[in-house]
Amino acid sequence: MQIHLLQHLPWNPPKNRQNPRKRIPFIPAGYFIDQRGRPNAKHEGHQIRCLGKCSTVEEFWKVFKETEKPSELQFTEAFYLMREPCDPQWEKPEYSNGGRWRLRHGDVRSADYLWCELAMSAVGEKLGQLVDSRNSILGVGVSPRPTSVVVEIWTASLDFDADKTIEFAERFNSLILPHPVSFKTVYYESFAEVRKKGAK
After folding, report:
1. pLDDT for 31-63, tens place per residue?
2. Which PANTHER family would you find in this protein's record (predicted)?
C-alpha cells in the first residue's frame, strides 16, 4: 500500500454518476466504538459506545466525517459499523449461531483506507456478495495494532466455506477494495469459539 492512497480517501458522499437523481441504496446502521483502552471512557455494555445511527447516506457521512479515523485510535480500541438493530456484543444469545471473518494487514497506515472502503460497502449492497446467499452480514469492524490492522466481517450464520481463506481474501480484494492489499492472516471463527477462548 502506497502512502499516497491514504492521503486521498473519499471522505465525501459518493455520487451516482450515471443517474444523479437516483437514490443510492442504503442499509440502516449504527456506528460504535469499543474503548477498552481508555479506563475513564464513558461506555455502554462492554465498554462499547454508540457514536450515531444512520438511516440515510447523508447521516452516515455526517457521523463518519465527525468521528476519529482508525489511525487515531489506541491500539486496544476498535470501530464497528453494525446493521440495525445489531450491536457489536458477540456474547448476546442472538449471535450464538454466527461468527466473524478476521483479516490482518501488515501496515497499520492502511487502517483508514481499509475502514473507509469496508464501511461504504457495509451500508451499501456490495458487502453481501462476500458470503453465501443463505447467510447475511451483521456488521464490520476495524482495529489498529502496533504493526498491523485487523478488519472483521460478522455473519449471522456460520460460514461453511471457512476453510477457504485464500478465496475469501481474493473475493474481499476484488469486491471491496479499489486498490487490493495483501493480508498476513485470514481466518474465520464462530462466536461459540470466541466464548470458549474467553477473549474478544
Report:
1. 999 987 555 544 444 589 999 999 998 999 999
2. EUKARYOTIC TRANSLATION INITIATION FACTOR 4E HOMOLOGOUS PROTEIN, ISOFORM B, EUKARYOTIC TRANSLATION INITIATION FACTOR 4E RELATED
